[in-house]
Amino acid sequence: MNLMLFGAPGAGKGTQAKFLIEKYNIPQISTGDILRAAIVEKTDMGMEAKKFMDEGKLVPDSTIIGIIKDRLAESDCKEGFILDGFPRTLAQAVALSELMSNMGISLDKVISLNVPDELIVGRITGRRVCSKCGASFHVEFNPSKKEDECDYCGGELIIRKDDNAETVISRLNAYHDQTAPLIDFYTKMGVFVELDGTKDVSEVTADMLNALS
Ligand code: ADP
Ligand code: AMP
């Protein structure tokens, strides 16, 4: 199963990806997580990407496409994968199509989690992420069982550097200007499914699994 989770920053892609990993036993490929790991490791790519991420801007396509090309070639992607936060531009979507076509595979579904902008700010400012596995929680809407501790791996929960009210605005602008045009691209491909991402986490999961069954 080759899946993509689509939606604005904070729409719930990472949260729902965790359920898909368990259900289908395929890896989540989050370009945001890969970039944050590169920042922690202080690689040249990470240091370059950080400048864009701190300002809520998209990292250049060439960097992102290179990351995905390497990641999809890894053996754990053979049975499928869940793309999360990629593609975010038309150039990335076209590159993905070419890459998948060369690999002899195609996308089964693009699941869009629809959440209006006015809910996004509250979601992002209340988000807490695991410093070890990247799992996403929310202080109010989706709290971890133990405060500041990840339910999945016990890692420490932290606030992402870009999860502040100012950066959210530029991230939402980037989404509407550069990413939303992909709705048309994937609708024409016949794989685009829209879900109401404003429902409770468990209801969104049920709708998503239903759409995939
Ligand atoms: P994305 O990966 O799309 O950026 P996340 O999955 O990290 O988004 O979710 C953003 C924030 O919203 C997190 O704090 C998460 O716990 C919370 N969240 C996710 N899904 C829902 C939901 N259905 N209702 C309320 N809050 C949610
Ligand atoms: P995310 O974890 O998906 O919210 O992404 C965090 C940040 O990483 C974004 O605001 C961008 O700066 C960068 N980023 C992640 N994925 C991409 C992508 N596919 N294209 C460009 N920039 C990306």
UniProtKB/TrEMBL annotation:
The gene is adkII. Its main location: cytoplasm. This is Adenylate kinase. InterPro entries: Adenyl_kin_sub (IPR006259), Adenylat/UMP-CMP_kin (IPR000850), Adenylat_kinase_CS (IPR033690), Adenylate_kinase_lid-dom (IPR007862), P-loop_NTPase (IPR027417). Zn(2+) binds at residues 130, 133, 150, 153. Consists of three domains, a large central CORE domain and two small peripheral domains, NMPbind and LID, which undergo movements during catalysis. The LID domain closes over the site of phosphoryl transfer upon ATP binding. Assembling and dissambling the active center during each catalytic cycle provides an effective means to prevent ATP hydrolysis. Some bacteria have evolved a zinc-coordinating structure that stabilizes the LID domain. One of its GO terms (biological process) is AMP salvage. It is found in: Cytoplasm.
